[in-house]
Amino acid sequence: MDVIEQKPKRDARAQDVKGAGLLTKACDILDLVGRSPGRLASKDLVEATGLSKSTVYRIVSALSARGFLRTDQATGQKLLLGFHMLDLAQSAWGEQDLSTIVADELRRLREMTGETAYLAALSGNQMVSISKSVGAHENSSTAAMGKTKPVYATSQGKAVLAFLPQRQLDHILSTLTFEPITSHTITDKNALRLRLNIVRQRGFAIDDEENIPGVRCIGVPLFDANGVPVAAISVSGPTYRMTMERAEQLAPELIEAGKRASLLIQGHKANAEQPSHSDIHPVGNPAFHGDKPLWRNREACLYWVDRLAPAIYAMPEDEQPVQIATTPGPIEHVIPARNGGINLVCEGVWYHARLGGMCERIDRPYFEHDSAFAAGPNGAVWTCREADGAWEIGQISARGAFTPEWTVAHAATNMAWSFDGKLLYALNSEEGIIYELVHGRRAPMVLCRIPRGAGTPCALAVDKLGRLWVALRDGWSVIRLDESGEVEQILALPVPRPTGLTFGGSDGATLYITTERLGVAQDILKNAPLSGHLLTVQIDV
Asked: What is the DSSP string of 209-278?
């Protein structure tokens, strides 16, 4: 006779639920069949469960009728899990379809390391394995999917625990019963808390033979749009291949993979919640390279330019756009002018333009090493200027006097002030780095680095709630970041190349997005006919 696994341990809490006895027996049968698919018949379940033959046959018949069990067609007697189980399994993660979203990252980790990469999620105080990408080695880790493991004894579990909200963490810790799975397993709550503090500081967790002797794992959390860990990915291998030194060397790569996967998870959820393409409205005729949108409250008017036409446009609120001027060459920079309208740089010369007026040259010095400009809430102009191999960001007067306040490693290609004037955000498109600069704090902070696969960040805007928005060139989207630099919202666009952002309108809730048409391949243009248009969308602020 086939080897029969022992009856699964029953949860004591389930036994206390009135009327749960029969349900518990059915769950025992499903567990047994799931662990030995195609090996057990009903008569084997009688022996394995200790239940009467009539009880087992009634339960098997009921489960089969509902699609939870089926018989092996080859024998007509051996039992398999029914196809309805697949439907339920997919629905378990249907909200974000974690397995599908993270599949590419697991594959990349497998290819990079040769070891098995796993995805697991928190279920109560256990981690449940959802998917894996099996390593290339013959003796690679091959843990079964759906298997649960104690949260305190895995790298995935510790990675998730370390970043949970404090109340949720305290609740889970209060439910744990520590058991020494191996001689290395953490068996003390205080010791676990100390380990979690280290995980928070380093950004990754290690299972050093704590769950399986001779196996070492490294794991990182995956975050949703609220910054809460929803799952974890890990790489696992035998200790002789996955040495502690190698695990620590893999940490930066795994952390980056976790960030990319988190971005995908957040984007997947945001796409279902945020405005659809039908909520995004094109304005006017397409430009070759629309750019530099600026909203002027005093005039209740939007200004923007076609950098390569080159031309200047204006659109008073609730009116149609008009071309107000052309320039002798490509437009490089645009800032608001104190007396209304805009000031712009064309071929190294400053001009002033406004609705109902002329485009006139103005006497204002321009330095070719200024890489970006931004106007603060008080009207002061700020620039980023090269200085001795580094880049300084500071205020510049109308006569050109430059007062640096911060030094950054990369040139700012776009900058945006918060409405309260406390924060300046500076972007370097090439590196995908966004700096957060605070008055009174000389040291700049890197808020985030946008992964290349998301698109090239090219423009910034801050809404009246202080939330930072980033346009992604060739990313078909605009994203909103939270205070820690994580993606909190994704606005999918019907065009591949947004170029500039600004908020405006009487309530400050309209996001204006300039876009580019020149350089977009013809086959893409067929699917993105709004390329080059100014786009508007109402944002909840």
From this structure: SSSSTTEEEEEEEEE-TTS-EEEEEEEEEETTTS-HHHHHHHHHHHHHHHHHHHHHHHHHHHHHHS--GG
E strand or H helix that includes residue 27: helix 21-35
pLDDT in tens, 167-200: 889 888 988 889 999 999 999 999 999 999 999 9
Strands ordered across the beta sheet of 370-375: 370-375, 381-387, 390-396, 402-408
Per-residue b/e over 278-310, b at no fewer than 16 CB within 10 Å?
A: eebebbbebbbbbbbbbbbeebebbbbbbbbbb
Digit-coded pLDDT (tens) for 441-481: 888 999 998 887 678 999 999 999 999 999 999 888 899 99
Number of DSSP helices (H) and strands (E) in the chain, helices first: 11, 32
Q: Which residues pair with 504 in a beta bridge?
A: 510
Q: How far apart are CA 170 and CA 174, in angstroms?
A: 6
d(CA 347, CA 330): 7
DSSP code, position 38: T
pTM for the predicted model, two decimal places: 0.55
CB 426 within 8 A of CB 408: yes
Task: State the Cα–Cα distance between residues 11 and 31, nearest whole angstrom.
Answer: 13
Average pLDDT over the chain, rounded to whole? Answer: 86
**106-115, 242-251, 253-262, 370-379 — which is least confidently predicted?**
106-115
End-to-end CA distance of the chain: 68
pLDDT in tens, 300-349: 999 999 999 999 999 999 899 999 999 999 999 999 998 899 999 999 99
Angle made by CA atoms 376, 377, 379, in degrees to the nearest 5: 65
Rounded CA separation 286/535 (Å): 10
DSSP state of 48: H
pLDDT in tens, 133-151: 887 765 566 566 667 889 9
Going by the DSSP 8-state scheme, the letter that residue 181 receives in this structure is S
Cα-based distances in Å from 146 to 118, 121, 125, 222: 12, 10, 15, 19
pLDDT bracket for residue 96 (50, 70, 90): very low
Q: Which two tokens stand for residue 209?
A: 């033979």
Supply 498's token pair.
Answer: 């947004």
Q: Determine the pLDDT at residue 439.
A: 83
In this structure, what is the dihedral angle of CA atoms 99, 451, 274, 233, given to the nearest 10 degrees?
20
Q: In the prediction, which pLDDT does 270 show?
A: 54
Q: How far apart are CA 454 and CA 430, in angstroms?
A: 13
The three-point CA angle 482-483-487 to 5° equals 25
Q: Are 342 and 500 in contact (CB under 8 A)?
A: no
Question: Strand 445-449 to strand 456-462: parallel, antiparallel, or no bridges (unpaired)?
Answer: unpaired
Task: Identify the residue with better confidence: 6 or 367.
Answer: 367
Contact 219, 255 (CB under 8 A): no
